[in-house]
Request: fold
Amino acid sequence: MKTWNLPRSIGPAGLITQSAGDLLRFARLHLDRYAEMRAPQVAFPAGVGGMEAIGQAWRLYNWSGRELFGHDGQTIAQLAFLRIDPEARLAVCLLTNSVNAPALFDQLVSEVFTHHVGVAVPPPPEPLDDVFAGREHLGRYERASIRIEVEERGDRLLMTHRATGDRLAFAEQPVVEYDLRPAAPGDGNQFVARSDPGQPWVPVTFFGTGLFMSGRMTPRVGVGELTS
Reply:
């Protein structure tokens, strides 16, 4: 592997190395100042973990009526999570390199927030039972560094993420397959996906021009069944 680190140009996305204490000091800075950055700017479709909107960089959450803000990030072998309750002045973070980090953080932050403010991470979405839909979404979706293919396999839909371009040089998992199933409200556009039974379901929303998953929109570039 030639790439051993991220370029300086994307420092905010993972090049910066900090301790959990440093991150919590950053959280305190935003508790004391810059409240305008938490003003909603864009609604978040099918938010996971209670996410409702995006502010100025911050993601905004509602957990059983409590307004929180935070941000997560994933890059080469690094995963980071942060949730902040401004009313309670409570902040929880997790820095790790575990592929099980999302489920670990949900458990950890729920335990801490339940103890201090009586709320937990909203339960993840679940697939609808005995419902098969989504053939109209078969095809290829693509953005820089990744191609997503949605295909029918037997009695289910499969969504495959493939690393492309320069990302192939450092991708730990160049190909990841997700089980894709319809979810509430059952309108044929809302689905959930997961790559492993041990992981929580993640919302996937289809639009006419692409799909939205994990905070990113991927445009549709091919329609119908895949031939290659």
